Amino acid sequence: MITPAHPTPEMARRMANAIRMLAVDAVEAAKSGHPGAPMGMADIAEVLWNRHLKHNPLNPQWPDRDRFVLSNGHGSMLIYALLHLTGYDLPIEELKKFRQLHSKTPGHPEVDITPGVETTTGPLGQGITNAVGMALAEKLLAQEFNREEDGQRFDIVDHMTYVFMGDGCLMEGISHEACSLAGTLRLSKLVALYDDNGISIDGHVEGWFTDDTPKRFEAYGWNVIAKVDGHNPQAVNAAIEAAKAQAGGVHGKPTLICCQTVIGQGSPNKAGTHDVHGAALGSAEVLATREALNWPYAPFEIPMDVKQSWDATSRGVRAQTQWDNLFASYKALYPQEAADYQRRMQGDLSAAYTQGLQNAFAAIVARPDAVATRKASQNALDLLAPLLPEFFGGSADLTGSNLTNFKTCIKVGRDTWGNHLSYGVREFGMAAIMNGMALHGGYIPYGGTFLTFSDYSRNAIRMAALMKKRVIHVFTHDSIGLGEDGPTHQSVEHVPSLRIIPGLDVWRPADGLETAVAWACAVERCDGPSALALSRQNLPQLLSNVADADKVRQGGYILSDMPGAQAIIVATGSETSLAMKAQAELALQGLASRVVSMPCTNVFDRQTEAYQEMVLPLGLPTVAVEAAHPDFWRKYVGRTGMVIGIASFGESAPAPALYAHFGITTERVCEAVRTLVHRHTHRQTVPLPAHIVPSDN
Ligand SMILES: Cc1ncc(C[n+]2csc(CCOP(=O)(O)OP(=O)(O)O)c2C)c(N)n1
Which secondary structure element, helix H or strand E, spans residue 142, and what is its range? Predict the structure, then answer.
C-alpha cells in the first residue's frame, strides 16, 4: 500500500494520535519519560514525516536521505513512534521496553542504538547545532561533488536537514552560536520547527524567556515563518512547502517555522501545563486521554488503517531507487568522483593516505629545528591534508594562533566551497557543529581553540565520545608555557580532566614526529574523537628516526634508557625535553634512569599489560612531570612516586619565569628522582598486621 501524500484531515488526526498514544503508553509503562513534547508536536510530525521527509526506513544509511534531528531529545518517544510507524527496524516490543536496559529505546535518542536516529540528543541546544553541522556538510559536499553535463544536473548530494526544537534549545547559548553562523553561511536546506508551547520544566516561560524569537532569527539572516498553528496540518504543510521552495537557491536562507502548540495536547486535564512535560500521565489521565482522542485501542495497538497510512517503506524504496539510478549515471560519467564520494561517506581513508604517510613522517624528522608543537601540527597538516580531501578544518577565531590552516586550504565562503572555516568565537558551537559534520559523513572535521577554552566545548566533546565519532580538537597554548596572557588562558586541570572522558584520546606530543603521529592516530581512529594539546613555545626535536613513529603509536614508550636504570621519569609534551635533561644530569651524578614519553595515556592504557609493565615496571621509583594538575599521574607513579605539576592557577609572566616559579625544572626532577631512589634503597619493610598470616611462598 502506498501512503497518500496528503491524508484526509481525519486520517492525519488519527496518525498524529497514534504518536500521542504510543508516547503516553510507553511513558506510562516505564513510569518515567516526557509525554508532553511528543503529544504537542504530533501534528507537526505527521506533516513532516508523512508528507515531506525523504527517507528509506529499510535503509537508514542511504547517504542522501533527509536528516531529522530531535533537538528536544527528552521527547524521545516522538522519534521512536515515528521510526516504528514508518517501518524502521524498531518493533513495537522495543517501544514497550522504553527506557529499559539494553532496549533500542533509551531515555534520550542515541545514535547507533536505534536505527534512524541521526544523533544523540538530550543536552539541549546541541541537536540544533549538530543539524547546522549536517546542513553545512550537505552544502559543502554538494558543491564538491554535484555536476552538470549538457544541461543535465547530477545532484547526488541534495537533501534537507530538519530539526524539532523547543524553548529549552533556544534558551541555551549554543543555539545562538550555531544559528547565527547558519544564517551567515546561508544554510538554506536547514529547516527548524520550533515547538512554541510556552512551557519548560519550571512552568510558564514568561518569567525567564521573553525573547522575540522571530526577530532574533530574522536578525541572524533566517527566513522566519512566524505564528503557525502547530495543530493545523495545512498551516504546517504550507510553511514547510515555503521553506523548501527557497531552499538551495542562490540567496536562500535557513528557515525557522514557529509552531504554536499546546504541550500534552490531547490530555484533557494536563495539556498546557508543565505537569505533562516530564512525568507519566497516571492511569486515570491515560484513560481520559484515550477517551478524549477517541482512541479505543489497547496500549501499543495501532489500528490497521493508521498503520498502513504511516508505512513509508515502499515510498522510501522508490525514493532511494530514484537516487540509485541517478548515482549510477553519475558514476558512469565521473567514476573517480563517485568512488571518492562513496569512500568518504563510508569513512574509509584513501590508498594515497596509507602510501603517503611514511613519506610525511620522513619529511617531518628531516627538519630538526625546534618548533612549537602547534607549528609542528601545521607542518603535519601541510603534509597530510593533500592525502586527505575529507579534511575539514577550522578555528574559533584563532586560526593564526592554533595554526589549523594549511598551505593548500581554501577558506569557506558564504556560498563558496572551502575546507577551512572561520567559526568565529564560538567554541561550543564549533565542537557540536563538527559532531554534526562527522555524523553526516563525508568529512573528518577538526577545529582549534586555546586548550583552556575546551571547557566551553566540553559537553560537545563528551557527546562525540559518547557517539564514537571521529572529530579532532586542536587545543593549543596548552599550559603556563603560553606565558604573559596569564592564568585565564593557562590550562592547569584541562589535560587531566579531558583524559577521563571515556573514549576520548588526549595527545600531548613532545616534538614534530610525536605531533604527526598524533594526527595520524586521530585520523585513523574511526571510533571516537581525539584532542591534541599543543604548545605555544618552541620544543626541541627528540625523535629523528621515522621508525620511532611505531613507538609513539603505543601512546607511551621508552624514549631514552640506561643500563641499570634505578628510576623512571615519565613526561608529556613540553616537559619531555626537560625529563631528558634531568636524565643527563642524573647520569653525571652516577644515577641511571629511564625516560618514558607518554603522549597519550589513553592509548597507552589500551596496550597489553605486558607492554605497560615493560615500559613502566612496577616497583621502580617513578617521577612524573607535566605542567598540569598532578593528581592524574598517581595511577602511574603510585603512592610512593612523585609528581611534579601545578595544583594552582598560573600567573602572568614570561614562560621561563613561570616554569621557574612553579618549580617545573630539571633541578626539581633530579631532586625528586634522588629522593625516591634513596627512599627505595633504604626502604623499611612494613610489619604485617597481626591478623594476617604470611603464606609459605
Ligand atoms: C543542557 C540541558 N540542560 C537541562 C536539561 C534538562 N531539561 C530537559 S527538558 C528541559 C526543559 C525544556 O523545555 P522545552 O524545550 O520547552 O521542552 P517542553 O517543556 O516543551 O517539553 C530541561 C531544562 C537538559 N536536558 N539539557
Answer: helix 126-145
